[in-house]
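During the no-cost extension, the postdoctoral fellow (Dr. R.K.) reprocessed legacy sequence entries with the updated structure-token encoder. One reprocessed record is reproduced below for audit purposes.
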Amino acid sequence: MRTAVSLALAAVVALGLGACGQDGPQNDAERAVVEFHTALQGKDWEGVCERIDPGLKDLFDKEAGSCENAMERSVGDDEQFFRDVSGELEVAGSDIDEDAGTGTVQVKANDGRVHDIGVKKIKGQWRVVGG
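Re-encoded structure tokens follow.
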């Protein structure tokens, strides 16, 4: 169980995030990624689960009884994980196709590497779908 959730989290979280770069999120997709990161940092599992792909949330619900339980069991007491996601999120940019409702948000890690976080617009809301 922990392994499945950890692997899924690895797909939606960029580790080793640095300080904020541009003047905050520039669009709703970027805001969704920043809100996801903020919820994750605060161990706001309900907030995390509200901001991910509903299919992934359903998987977590099935595996652990609820998405929130899956988050708590997977990373709730993982000190290294929370060191890795500490600090503000640096959004380096995004490539969003509003018509298709898909895109990627680029976030910069402490090591200078840029990671793509997949986003998808579902029922009018941008959700994190993977990395």
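Residues 32 and 125 are 8 Å apart (CA to CA). Helices lie at 2-12, 28-41, 45-50, 54-64, 67-75, 79-84. The remaining legacy entries will be reprocessed before the final report is submitted.
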